[in-house]
Amino acid sequence: MHTWKRPYSRLGLRLLKGFSLLFLLLVMSGCWGQKNIDQLTVVAAIGLDAAPDDRIEMSVQLVNPTLPVAAGAGGQRRPFAMYAAEGDTIFEAMEQIRKQAKKNLFFPQSRIILIEEELARRGIEEYTDFFWRDTQQNPLSWILISKQPARDTLQKSKELEDVPSEEWSDFIKNRRGNSSVTLELYKFLPRLDQVGFQAYAAGIAPVSKGGEETMAIREIAVFKQHKLVGWLTDRQAQVLGWLQGKSHNGMIQFELQDRGPKPVVFELKQIKVRLVPSVYRNRVAYRVGIRAKAELKSSVKSLDLTDVQTNRLLEKKLAAQIRESVEQTIERVCRTYNSDVIGFGEALHQSYPRQWKRMKKRWNEELADLDVQVSVSVPIIKTGLKSDQRGLQPE
Amino acid sequence: MKRKISDLQFFFIIFVSVASLTYFSIPTQLVPKARQDLWLSMAIGAAVDIYVAYILHWLGRKYPGQSLIQYSRTVLGPIGTLFGFIFVLFFLIVIVSAMWLFCKFLSTTLMPDTPGIIFSATMTLATGWAAYHGLESIARLAQFISVLILSASVLLILFSIRELNLHYLLPPFENGVGPAIKGAVYPASWFGICIVIGMLMPHLANPKRTFKMKASAVLLGAFVMTVTFLCSMAVIGPYMASRIDYPIYMFSRIIHLAFFERFDILLMLIYISGTFITFSTLYYGAAVGAAQLFGTRTHRNWVKAFAIFFVASPLLPFSNNASYAFLFFDKWFPLFGLLIEGGITTLIFVAALAKDRIERRR
């Protein structure tokens, strides 16, 4: 019954069988669902704009694969192509775009989802369902809020890389010199619904310099439910990044009165934030503990850091500065925008589920006068290459 | 002469049956109900299954050389025959519903343009071929596929470590232990398809160790599953995990390491190869069971006869009506599954025990 009992008979037939099975592998590369690389175009970014009459305008940035110059292509082709269409729903707009592009749009590699500020202020509730359902979307695309129409941002920007959205996503991923943290699609979507853990997204705005537009990723848009309610400045955005545990370093500068008008600059490293809720007699209080290590980056006047007094004074000033900016950010988020992007509610939920269940319904009122104690501990650990000893005078 | 399957082969068949098919059948129902407490449901599910395994082990040792279908008839006579019929029917229903899930999953996620019947047809062809050639071929396949599955699952878990937010798994038991205990019916009913071991036991080289092998396989499988579920929840958050159909798929889309992305391929490898083993084992169990029930000489004709049901499973009437499908997997499947896996086996066990006592008294 088993063929291997007679190894040499019908060897040819067995080889034929084997080869035909291997051949099947080539043919069966996905049945109907197979996508040939020449039939599809990779979507690098999706832009969503508000259109009149409560409609939506969708634009897609498509990668136009260019051959290397050595392979014979002169590089005349545009590095990317843009298509835009309006519709009542995202789906309708996408159908229109398909007609323009005449190819299969391949979404799973998209990097950026750009939402226009005006649309975000109008509310994006009706459009999120598409992203929840569509399995073709990339859950790792970054959300950015465009201060000008998203279509223009995608069309006009010039970056070092051919496809601007790839440059942006690399920048967000590296977090080097980037104070505006943002969320991936898969984190952004659920947070739009979570009253104790609201969504935010970094902004992107043009910085014009003689005709060509460079885009800067800065500031942070705060969402309340499905609506954008306001912006955090760069400094507040940096603090939000710390509080979210998303960024662990940052810059802080302040003036020392007796050292002239120019500020001293510190770089903060290894920032760790602990957010601890506590419940006492049905009142919730939070302790925010921040620990970091500071390095002196530049100072106009010479500072004697070997002097214990000076050092202590500096550390005190630094801690006060950090505490102030953290308190300011919390104040802005909780009072002014009344939206829990920091996740106070979720922290309460995780530690005191019963309290949370009671407070959930009126969480926004609770948020407006939340009791938050901020404590900061920042030792100055390293001061760069320069030696700051006493008695060293310029010659 | 029939070849026997070794302990390790048996272990792997059970492990694969527990930890593959269930990646997409359990979480859809369990996660929205038990959320971060699902580990308790999984533990209870595994415990129930180990109980059933003990019963089957005892019965198999009591009636050596007989399968589940045969000894239920020996013990209970005509009622036993009816039970045997129910078992075979149950195997068929499990395959049809799991096949339906399989096709649905593949056509919603990976290949939206391919008609579901293509998946069911190819799967039926492959599993039918394995079942046709008997248990030894399935066991041999299980041996290397399970190594594949085990290493792929470990990789999946390792790659997710960087993205884990363990505080997402807090607070424990926010709605009490109730939801987690109620949720245990899903893992219990899906793990319970391992009653197919009742069909395998006569072929074991070493039936004395059935229980030990089975229990450790279920524990390992349930452990791997639970860790994967918890990891996926710690990555995407319990809120999102409970709002989407296939949280594990989402999880595999999200985890990435350096420039490696799209680990969903790894998950597909686990799912498709594991499902293949599970289906073939059940298929074999159903075909052999039917042959024993109707006194047919060989199970092979039953393999051919059943194929049509499996191929047609994505075309079942009403099955594409989301509310019926939901009701089936949410209510009916766990209810009937547990009644058959736990209830009927216990009945047979009690009857056999009573019979044993009576015989001894004489």
UniProtKB/TrEMBL annotation, chain A:
Residue ranges of domain Spore germination protein N-terminal in the record: 34-195
Pfam family for this entry, one: Spore_GerAC_N
Keywords from the UniProt entry: Germination, Lipoprotein, Membrane, Palmitate, Signal
Name the record gives this protein: Ger(X)C family spore germination protein
Boundaries of every Spore germination GerAC-like C-terminal domain copy: 220-384
Family the entry assigns: Belongs to the GerABKC lipoprotein family.
InterPro entries documented for this protein: GerAC_N, Spore_GerAC-like, Spore_GerAC-like_C, Spore_GerAC_C_sf
One of the GO BP terms on file: spore germination
Membrane topology: Lipid-anchor
Compartments where located: Membrane
Superkingdom classification of source: Bacteria
GO CC annotation terms, alphabetical: membrane
Main location: membrane
Biological classification of the source: Bacteria, Bacillati, Bacillota, Bacilli, Bacillales
TrEMBL record, chain B:
Subcellular location: Membrane
Gene Ontology cellular component terms for the protein in this record: membrane
Gene3D superfamilies: Amino acid/polyamine transporter I (1.20.1740.10)
InterPro entries cross-referenced by the UniProt entry: Spore_GerAB
Keywords of the record: Germination, Membrane, Transmembrane, Transmembrane helix, Transport
Membrane topology listed for this record: Multi-pass membrane protein
Pfam entry (one): Spore_permease
Transmembrane segments: 7-26, 38-59, 79-102, 114-132, 144-164, 184-205, 217-241, 265-290, 302-320, 332-354
Coiled coil: none
Domain of life: Bacteria
GO biological process, one term: spore germination
Family per similarity comment: Belongs to the amino acid-polyamine-organocation (APC) superfamily. Spore germination protein (SGP) (TC 2.A.3.9) family.
Name the record gives this protein: Endospore germination permease
Organism: Cohnella nanjingensis
